[in-house]
Specification:
single chain, alpha/beta, nicotinate phosphoribosyltransferase, 2 domains, six-stranded parallel beta sheet, five-stranded antiparallel beta sheet, 17 helices, 11 strands, about 15% strand, globular
C-alpha cells in the first residue's frame, strides 16, 4: 500500500489560504458546492480511481496543521492571528465530500460550509493526478521521469539563454503554479529544487505553500475565480458582485496581495468595474483566459484612460503557459509594464504522457448557481444554462446569446 499522497495541510496553493481568510471573516455561514470535472479524454476511465480517491480522502481528513506550519503561516504579514487560530483547530470533515464511480466517470462533490469545502479543491486535484499517472505507469511500464528530466534540462537551457538577449526594462520572472497539475509530489519538489539551484534569477516562487516553506522561497498567490463567484450569491446585487468582491479584498488586505483576477465575466466587464479607485489600490491584474496580447493591450489602455502610469503596475499571465509563450509575452510587454508568469502543467507535468485537464470548481453558493464566463470558449463552467444566459445579459457577455 502506498503512503498517502497529501501528507501536509500546507500542501495547497497560497490563494486557498488568502481567500479562506476573508471567507472566514465575512462569509462563515455561506454554503457551497464544488464539483470535479475532467475536460479531456483519458487513457482509462477515471471512475476506476474512485476507491483509491476515497482512501486518500480518508487520510486527508486525519491531518492537522503542525506547529511549524502554523508558525510559517503566522510569518506571512497578511495572515491574521485569528485565522491562524482557526487553522490550528481545522480538520477536513469527511461528511462534506463524496467520491464515486458513475458509469466510468469519476464524480467528486464537496458540499457544505464554504470555510470547510473550499480547501478540498487543491488536494483532490493533486490526488487524482498522481493516482492516474501512477496507474498509467503500471499499465504501460517505463519511467517518464527520464524524459521529464531531459525536457526540464532543455527548459533551463532556454532560460539561461535569455542572458544573451537584449536588455529589457523589466526582468523575466516566472512562478511554479503546478500543484494542481503535477505528475507527482516528488516530481514537483525535484523540479522546484533544481530551478532554484540553476535559474534563481528567473524562478521567483511557487504557489505550493509547503514547498515555499521547505525551500525558503516566496509563496505566490492572491485570488481565484471562486472568490469573485461567491459574491454572485451572497446578497449583493448581481451587477455589483465584482465591485463587492474587490472591495472585500481591499478591506481585508489593506494593500497586500494586490493582484486581481479579471475573467469571471470577461475582461471588458471587469474593466468597467475596475475604476480609478481599484486601479490605484491594486498592484496589477492576472490573465487566465482569452488572447493574452489583446488582454494586456486592453489593460494598458485602461490605465491610460484612468490617467495611471501603467509602468508601475504588473501583468501576471497564467493561462496554459509554456516557456516559449511566456518569453514572447515578456518581450512584448516588458518595456512597458512589469510582468510575471505562472506556469503549471508545462513545468510540473511535461514528461511525455498526456496531462489531465481537470478542475474542481464552485458551482453553487447558498443554493443558487454561480458561474465563470470565461474569455476562452469552452472554459465557462456552470450547471445552470439559464443563469449563464442571465449573467451574460447583465454584463454584456457573449454567453448571453
Amino acid at each position: 500500500m502506498n503512503d498517502p499522497i497529501i501528507t501536509s495541510l500546507l500542501e495547497t496553493d497560497l490563494y486557498k489560504l488568502t481567500m479562506w481568510q476573508p471567507m472566514l471573516h465575512q462569509n462563515p455561514a455561506t454554503q457551497a458546492e464544488y464539483r470535479f470535472v475532467c475536460r479531456n479524454a483519458t487513457e482509462f476511465p477515471l471512475g476506476d480511481l474512485a476507491d483509491a480517491v476515497n482512501r486518500e480522502l480518508d487520510a486527508l481528513c486525519e491531518l492537522k496543521f503542525t506547529q511549524a506550519e502554523l508558525d510559517y503561516v503566522s510569518g506571512l504579514r497578511f495572515m491574521k492571528p485569528d485565522f491562524v487560530d482557526w487553522l490550528h483547530l481545522f480538520r477536513f470533515q469527511r461528511r462534506f465530500i463524496t467520491a464515486q464511480n458513475e458509469q466510468g466517470a469519476l464524480s467528486i462533490v464537496a458540499n457544505g460550509p464554504i470555510i470547510h469545502t473550499t480547501g478540498f479543491e487543491i488536494p483532490v486535484l493533486s490526488m487524482v493526478n498522481e493516482l492516474y499517472f501512477r496507474e498509467l505507469r503500471q499499465r504501460s511500464g517505463g519511467d517518464p521521469t527520464i524524459e521529464g528530466e531531459r525536457r526540464l534540462t532543455a527548459k533551463i537551457a532556454k532560460l539561461k539563454a535569455l542572458k544573451d538577449g537584449p536588455a529589457r526594462r523589466n526582468p523575466f520572472e516566472f512562478f511554479d503554479f503546478g500543484l494542481r497539475r503535477r505528475y507527482s509530489g516528488a516530481w514537483q519538489q525535484q523540479v522546484a529544487a533544481r530551478l532554484l539551484a540553476e535559474v534563481p534569477e528567473y524562478f521567483k516562487g511557487t504557489s505550493n505553500v509547503k514547498i515555499a516553506m521547505d525551500l525558503g522561497i516566496t509563496a505566490i498567490g492572491t485570488m481565484a475565480h471562486e472568490f469573485l463567484q461567491m459574491h454572485q450569491a451572497t446578497g449583493v446585487r448581481l451587477s455589483k458582485f465584482q465591485k463587492q468582491a474587490l472591495e472585500t479584498w481591499v478591506q481585508e488586505y489593506r494593500g497586500d496581495l494586490g493582484t486581481a483576477l479579471t475573467d469571471v465575466v470577461g475582461i471588458d466587464a471587469f474593466l468597467r468595474d475596475f475604476d480609478r479607485y481599484f486601479a490605484l489600490l491594486f498592484d496589477g491584474l492576472r490573465h487566465d483566459s482569452g488572447d493574452p496580447v489583446e488582454w494586456g493591450e486592453k489593460v494598458i489602455r485602461h490605465y491610460r484612460t484612468l490617467r495611471i502610469d501603467s509602468s508601475a503596475k504588473r501583468l501576471v499571465f497564467s493561462d496554459g503557459l509554456d516557456f516559449d509563450t511566456a518569453i514572447s509575452l515578456w518581450r512584448h510587454f516588458a518595456d512597458r509594464m512589469m510582468t510575471g508568469f505562472g506556469i503549471g502543467t508545462h513545468l510540473m507535468n511535461d514528461l511525455g504522457p498526456k496531462p489531465l485537464n481537470i478542475v474542481m470548481k464552485l458551482v453553487r453558493c447558498n443554493g443558487s448557481p454561480v458561474a465563470k464566463l470565461s474569455d476562452t470558449p469552452g472554459k465557462t463552467l456552470c450547471d445552470d444554462e439559464t443563469f449563464v444566459r442571465y449573467l451574460g445579459q447583465v454584463f454584456g457577455h457573449p454567453a448571453a446569446a
